[in-house]
Amino acid sequence: MVIEHKWSAPIFDDATLSTLRDALQDDLREVMASIPPEAVRALDLIKAAIVAENLDAARAAAHSLTGMALNFGATRIAAIAGRIALNSPDVGTVERHVGPLERAIGETCAQIQLTV
């Protein structure tokens, strides 16, 4: 059974995005384009850890994803990945967060196309 969660975190933190825009100017699109493949790679690692029933590996991948997301202001991804990294007592809990994480990654990818 998959439990749906309502994630209230915005997709992006406007202040972080503004800082990145100012710092990177013309390179922002290229830098932001790195979010989707990195997020998908981390998601794949989390899924592989679930299959292997390796909670430590799932938490480690989620921790890395949280850091990357925070660096880019991708707050919704960071909130869900952070919950996996810090608050998952077992692989089943991690598995319940995969659907919301996949949606957050998809929403973030869509927002990148609109924002950048």
Give a quick precis of the structure.
Helix content is 77%, strand content 0%.
SSE diagram, text form:
Blueprint: H1 14-24, H2 28-32, H3 35-51, H4 55-72, H5 75-87, H6 91-115
Describe the structure.
With 116 residues, this protein is mainly α. The protein is built from six helices and no strands. The model is unreliable at 1-5 (pLDDT under 50).
The low-confidence parts are 1-5
The assigned structural class equals: mainly alpha
Number of helices: 6
Strand content: under 5%
Mean pLDDT over the full residue set: 85
Helix content: over 70%
SSE ordering = HHHHHH
Radius of gyration: 14 Å
Total beta strands = 0
**What gap, in angstroms, lies between the N and C termini?**
37 Å
Q: Quick one: biggest sheet?
A: none
Instruction: Please state the overall shape, judged from the principal axes of the Cα atoms.
Output: elongated
Tag the structure with descriptive keywords.
116 residues; mainly alpha
